[in-house]
Amino acid sequence: MVNGYVQNRKQPRLEILYKIAMILDVDIRLLLESTKTDKNEA
What we know:
There is one protein chain. The protein is mainly α and 42 residues long. The protein is built from 3 helices and no strands.
């Protein structure tokens, strides 16, 4: 399941995302930020 998240094939439910954020001791918003760069940026 985690591999699916890492490979971006699956998205965790919000409840699971909240638990991951708690375990990692980070704000849940950090996990929700997009990591894709815009093609116009360069």
